[in-house]
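pls read this protein:
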Amino acid sequence: MADSKPDLTPIQAELNPTRRIFTNRNLRMESIQAVGFDMDHTVAVYNTPQFNRLCFDLAIERLVDAFDYPAAITQVTWDPDAAIRGLVVDKRLGNLLKIDAFNHVTRARHGMRFLEKDELRAHYPSGGLRLGTPRYRVFDTLFDLPEGCIFAGMMDLQARGVVTLKRDNRAVYDNIREAVDTLHADGSLKARIMADLGRYFLPDPDLVPTLERFRAAGKKLFLLTNSEVEYTAAVMDFLVDGAPGAWEDLFDVVVCTARKPKFFLKGTDGVPVPAGENPRLPNRGGKAFVGGDSFFLEKILGAKGDQILYFGDHTYGDILRSKKSVGWRTALIVPEIEDEITALRPLQSKWRELTGLEERLEDLVMYRDRLEALPGGKKEELAFLKSLISDGLAHRARLQTALKGAYNPHWESHFREGRAASRFGRQTLEFACIYTSRVSNFLNYPADKFFARPLEVLPHERWALSEV
């Protein structure tokens, strides 16, 4: 009797793909003894458009008042789509760059204008960028995006002769970076946020049940954030929405002003937060600290290395350093997944059609090349093949145009560049054990879940899998 395939469609469709957890490396939650969380853009979900606009406005104001820029730079227009995570700033030429997984420049924008192909090749010849040099800066976090909008806008104003900045491009970007840094450092930005937390944060009703599920499964929980005590206390108190300071009972340890990524190098013990000094972080159990290092934290937790799973949004400061320096398992929070999947879902059939068409075109081109190499004959078959290829290329262009419309209007997908992964897409795959759009997505999974990585299909195996 022939084997019958079970119909798993209802099961597969039950969980919205925007709320799924995606696996890069096998992760057995049974072996995890402690689970840690960054705060900003991790357990604390920002209203990103509102936050970025505030940062943009304050930075422009700071550039005029403290850095002696002409008032005309206030003409820079706020564009929430001007920058995405993974872009690179070329401070020498004044460009924003998108690069692929091998650090090759795939598109560049100066002000509001994208460089033509010949310009791109002239400025960025073959070979990957050396991103470790002072010439470049990578946008690794969502906090970086207002800087991209300001820089592009100022380059545009200068290119059009609206302003004369009287500085080279490197100095302009460094001034923008410093202005934004000082907004964070002097407390002016955070003061505005704390005065209206409901405007800048999106409380997640599933967050507390998710943390409680981890605790019920016997996991120790810790909060590890670079934010200061006052800001951490205000944000967490708002998000958890209980009695003042009750949120700290969700965690076994709280570390503020952690100075990541330095936190993952040998340093000193943390300093206890003064008990009762801040009613929103009263430190009743003596488990809240300022500073310290990962070794101090591991000693308190009674867990170390791969017994610890850490959630964060910063590809370098949270994920790569905790993995490389102390061997923690890692979960990357990527909010952008929700927007991209939501936009692509109505175009799912086109995505699949494009994937199949790419494979078909590759076969047709290979067959055409073989026929052209044969001496004489088969002219009719060759003409027919060329017609099929031409029609296929035209159809591919239409499908690509439809899919591009689902992404960022300037940079398209965060994770891809054409058929290849972008640098950010490759980091998402290589740095994190698992990745997902928000911490509370774990509520959809058992606390002892074994996350198994999917089958990795090598190029020479693709012929056997018609659905790939």
User: Anything to note?
Assistant: The CA atoms of residues 273 and 289 lie 5 Å apart. The longest helix spans residues 348-373. The chain has three domains: 28-45+202-332, 48-194, 338-444+453-462. Residues 48-194 form one domain.
